[in-house]
Amino acid sequence: MEDTVVHLYEQSRRQLRAVAARYVGEEAEDVVQDAFLRALRSRHGFRGDAKPLTWLSRIVVNASLDRCRRRSRWEHAYPRLAHRSSTANPAVESSVAIRTALRRLTRDQRRVFVLYDVLGHTHNEIARRLAIPPGTSK
User: Fold this and answer.
1) Residue 47, CB half-sphere, CA atoms under 13 Å: how many?
2) What pTM value is reported for the model?
3) Model pLDDT for residues 125-138, shown as the tens digit of each residue
4) In this predicted model, what pLDDT tens digit does every residue of 12-40 receive, in sequence order?
5) Which residues have a Cβ under 8 Å from the Cβ of 73 and sit 6 or more positions away?
6) Range list of H helices, 25-131
7) Other beta carbons within 10 Å of 117
8) Whose CB among 5, 60, 69, 109 lies 3.0–4.6 Å from 105's, allowing a Cys bridge?
9) Three-state secondary structure string covering 65-83
């Protein structure tokens, strides 16, 4: 069992880090490790309806969004410190702008965006998965 877990982690780490980096920038490796721990804890709930990488990607997206929410609450509680740290690093500034833009989307729009841009699904795959016309996804 342990060999399988290590193999899965090594096999998928780069892809999962790329997904997380779109949300949290330099904290991507931490998010991937957190997400992998979540996956290990909930592995018995994996029904096999999706590929393991798809399942792990969803966990990474959720972990990334959780990290963004925690960061947002921190930035709200300590605006001076948050402003100072975000202006010091353009990557963080971009990450904040992207998160802000994502928050403006509806839940359904965000789902399509994540499936298409982050996870790389085609519009036809998204349409089948969400039971919507392909043109709606586009």
Assistant:
1) 2
2) 0.50
3) 889 988 999 888 88
4) 888 899 888 888 888 888 888 888 888 88
5) none
6) 28-41, 52-77, 79-88, 90-104, 107-113, 123-130
7) 10
8) 109
9) HHHHHHHHHHHHHCHHHHH
